[in-house]
């Protein structure tokens, strides 16, 4: 079990396994958030009930969550809960966990 | 003049020049927020739009983010007499950021730049 937590500790996320790869995307939102996404099934993730604020844009298919207190971007989740994919911001995992992951650069800007 | 804007456009920052270098810090907050910081004198920077603020530790810095989209926009000194602030260069145009040198700062331990070793 791997834990990710925001800076103030209000939001914690448990994922089943350390990510082998994380995604560094250059789309308009990811390049600004500076996130490194670890993708997983929502079934394999437990997000603490700590409060998050949500941002949605464009086709509003994805909720971007951030801690209400410290503002750290914690995860995204699909609005359609039948979608079996979500992203956890691996920057919130322990540095040694992130350091072992391969960073894959994704050209989300040209999609 | 260089403009930085959050994703939704509610917060816009005008800075006087493109950064030659930006700082990637590994402290407990910066490693999570993923900022690349460009430093300016607050007198030379205009910030427009509503932000939320996070303050922690010795409470010397206010970390600002857009109230709508949550993008980290800038930090400012709580002591308004200090002539330094940081703008998140990830909010600048990609070509501006690409032209800047990234300096890694060891905010977690030694408080020195790794390229000063």
Offer a quick outline of the entry.
The complex is a heterodimer of chains A (111) and B (117). Helices cover 9% and strands 41% of the residues of chain A.
Strand order of the largest sheet of chain A: 4-9-8-7-6
- Count of alpha and pi helical runs of chain A: 2
Order of helices and strands of chain B: EEEHEEEEEEHE
Number of helices of chain B: 2
| Largest interface pair | A-B, 27 and 26 residues
**What's the N-to-C terminus distance of chain A?**
33 Å
Overall shape of chain A: it is globular
Structural class of chain B: mainly beta
One letter per element, helices H and strands E, the order of chain A comes to EEEHEEEEEEHE
Strand content of chain A: 35-45%
Tally of extended strands of chain A?
10
Task: Give a written overview of the molecule.
The complex is a heterodimer of chains A (111) and B (117). With 111 residues, chain A is mainly beta. Chain A has two helices and ten strands; from the N terminus they run E-E-E-H-E-E-E-E-E-E-H-E. Chain A has helices at 30-33, 95-100; strands at residues 2-5, 12-15, 21-25, 37-40, 45-47, 52-55, 62-67, 73-78, 86-89, 102-106. Chain A has a five-stranded antiparallel beta sheet, with no helix packed on it. A three-stranded antiparallel beta sheet of chain A has the order 1-2-5, with no helix packed on it. In chain A, 38% of the residues are buried. Chain B is built from two helices and ten strands; from the N terminus they run E-E-E-H-E-E-E-E-E-E-H-E. In chain B, the strands form three sheets. Chain B has a five-stranded antiparallel beta sheet with strand order 4-9-8-7-6, with no helix packed on it. In chain B, strands 1-2-5 form a three-stranded antiparallel beta sheet, with no helix packed on it. In chain B, strands 3-10 form a two-stranded parallel ribbon. The relative contact order of chain B is 0.28. The model of chain B has no long low-confidence stretch (mean pLDDT 96). The A-B interface holds A 6-8, 26, 28-29, 31-36, 53, 55, 57, 64, 66, 69-73, 89, 91-92, 95, 109 and B 6-8, 26, 28-29, 31-36, 52, 54, 56, 63, 65, 68-72, 88, 90-91, 94.
């Amino acid at each position: 079990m791997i834990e990710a937590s925001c800076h103030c500790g209000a939001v914690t996320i448990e994922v089943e396994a350390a990510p082998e790869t994380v995604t560094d995307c250059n789309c308009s939102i990811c390049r600004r958030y500076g996130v490194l996404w670890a993708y997983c099934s929502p079934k394999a993730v437990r997000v603490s009930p700590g409060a998050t604020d949500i941002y949605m844009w464009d086709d509003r298919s994805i909720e971007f969550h951030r801690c209400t207190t410290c503002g750290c971007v914690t995860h995204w989740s699909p609005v359609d809960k039948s979608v079996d994919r979500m992203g956890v911001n691996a920057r919130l995992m322990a540095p040694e966990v992130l350091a072992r992951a391969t960073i894959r650069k994704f050209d989300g800007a040209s999609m | 003049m260089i403009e930085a804007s959050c994703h939704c456009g509610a917060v816009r920052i005008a800075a006087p020049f493109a950064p030659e270098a930006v700082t990637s810090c590994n402290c407990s907050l910066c490693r999570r927020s993923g900022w690349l910081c460009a430093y300016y004198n607050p007198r030379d920077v205009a910030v427009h739009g509503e932000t939320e603020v996070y303050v922690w530790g010795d409470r010397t810095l206010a970390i600002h983010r857009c109230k709508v989209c949550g993008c980290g926009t800038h930090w400012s000194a709580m002591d308004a007499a200090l002539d330094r602030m940081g703008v998140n260069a990830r909010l600048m145009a990609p070509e501006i950021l690409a032209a800047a040198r990234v300096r890694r700062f060891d905010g977690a331990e030694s408080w020195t730049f790794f390229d000063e070793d």
